[in-house]
Amino acid sequence: LKNKGKNGYQFFTTSMKESANQRLEKEISLSQGLEKGEFVLHYQPKVYISTGEVYGMEALVRWNSENGLVYPGDFIDLAEETGMIVPLGEWVLREACRQCKEWHELGHTHLKVSVNVSAIQFQKQDFAELTARILKETGLEPAALELELTESTVMEKPKEAAAILMRLQQLGVSISIDDFGTGFSSFSYLKQFPMNALKIDRSFIQNIEEEEADKAIAKAMISLARNLGLMIVAEGVENEKQMEILRKAGCDAAQGYFFSRPLDTSAFLDYIRRSKAR
Ligand code: C2E
Ligand code: CA
Ligand code: CA
Ligand code: CA
Questions:
Q1: 51-62, pLDDT tens digit by residue?
Q2: What residues does the ion ligand 3 have nearby, CB within 5 Å?
Q3: Whether the Cβ atoms of residue 234 and residue 214 lie closer than 8 Å to each other
Q4: Which of 93, 164, 184, 237 fits a disulfide with 256 by CB distance 3.0 to 4.6 angstroms?
């Protein structure tokens, strides 16, 4: 029942009812999916623009459900609303560290893994301790782990966030601000929070060839990062023209379909081997 004020109550329409049911079903199958080990990580290469070297990869979660491969856009919101993101995010962090360690043991010791962290997960009291524990368990060197957080995640409770970030940096873990430029926060947080890198959001990259404003913003972000001593990474680079603009502007690194789509583990390993042979 929905309260419609002085007009009294209105029942859910059939379609609203269905969608509530569908949501519940999805919620149940999501948590069963985690128990059944249906989640997988794909990895997208991150490349130094000046040398073309693949220095790392972003772990991106997918759900291998009985209805096929489901992308995070279709389940992360629900996972966040239901709190499922906490165990799911813990699984992602552990699995990404385990996989990176495995690749190190195969000789690719330079690889760094980047893991996306949701606000709800980050704000859990023991996030830094959990990270320390997972690093210990998997044997991954802290320097090989980068956490990607959005501006809103760190801005929600800035004092608490700063303390957690400090603790993570003490461990030797890197911090990257994801989707940089899409939030509404002031630049002042940049000097308050310990961080190592900024990621220019794809929305500034996709029309960078024809939109002077996007180009100007990207350039400003690059010089801001340089002056703050932060690494700057462009996401969603799809073609050579975009790449050239970023190179000329002095961007450090890039990621996007121009280099590679996110790959499953065996395809990623092939990619690394091929890129080394070049
Ligand atoms: P994001 O962190 O901004 O990740 C980049 C997204 O852009 C990925 O989508 C990636 O596949 C896509 N992408 C990469 N290069 C290109 C390109 O050149 N062109 C275009 N059009 N897209 C590109 P994906 O994997 O569907 O992930 C979507 C979002 O879901 C991520 O955005 C991130 O916010 C979230 N996400 C993914 N994995 C995780 C996770 O393990 N934990 C959490 N909390 N969130 C995750
Ligand atoms: Ca990310
Ligand atoms: Ca991003
Ligand atoms: Ca983005």
A1: 999 999 999 999
A2: 178-179, 235
A3: no
A4: 237
